[in-house]
Write a structure and sequence with these properties.
With about 160 residues, the chain is an alpha/beta fold. It has helices spanning about 30-35, 55-60, 65-80, 90-100, 105-110, 115-135, 145, 160-164, and strands at about 25-30, 50, 80-85, 140, 155. Strand 1 (about 25-30), helix 1 (about 30-35) and strand 2 (about 50) form a beta-alpha-beta unit.
């Protein structure tokens, strides 16, 4: 079975976070929050603004052609966002969190969503959270309905809480 992520292009070097260890005051952004204006406010404050390579992969799969990829990458650069690889420690954190949680899909189903797609979405959200949690950084999300079921509330904030 082929790895579905193998066909996705790697982030360009200028988008990678190469400053060593991720500082605890860094902010990670989920997929939707990364494209919001607030993400651009973080870097001028001297704090790293980051996304997981999982978020980068999701963003580029939404693109429309090669031009769309360049537009997404330019938006990330303009907002000062850098990509942090989802490494084996992030994966370990994800599996630990996944073991702690039992996803009760029906109450969290979105309109026209199957139980399986709901569980897949929740696991993706949990993996994005694990990437931030692995670095003891805060994740910015507006996905309150899903995240309120996750442990470690002190490690995620809504955009309103973080920038309001």
């Amino acid at each position: 079975m082929q790895n579905p992520l193998a066909s996705l292009p790697l982030p360009p070097p200028e988008l990678m976070f190469n400053a060593g260890e991720v500082p605890a005051d860094a902010l990670f952004f989920d997929t939707n929050s990364a494209l919001q204006a607030e993400a651009a406010q973080v870097q001028p404050q001297g704090r790293p603004a980051l996304i997981s390579s999982l978020v980068y992969a999701e963003l580029i799969t939404r693109r429309k052609g090669a031009k769309g990829l360049r537009i997404i990458e330019m938006n990330l650069v303009d907002r000062g966002l850098r990509v942090v690889s989802f490494d084996h420690l992030s994966a370990r954190c994800f599996f630990e969190l996944n073991r702690q949680l039992r996803f009760d899909a029906p109450p969290l189903l979105r309109q026209q969503e199957t139980e399986r797609s709901c569980r897949d979405r929740l696991r993706f959200d949990l993996a994005v959270f694990a990437a931030a949690l692995r670095h003891r950084a805060t994740l910015i999300t507006d996905n309150i309905r899903d995240f309120e079921h996750f442990p470690y509330r002190e490690f995620w904030k809504t955009r309103a809480e973080a920038f309001g």
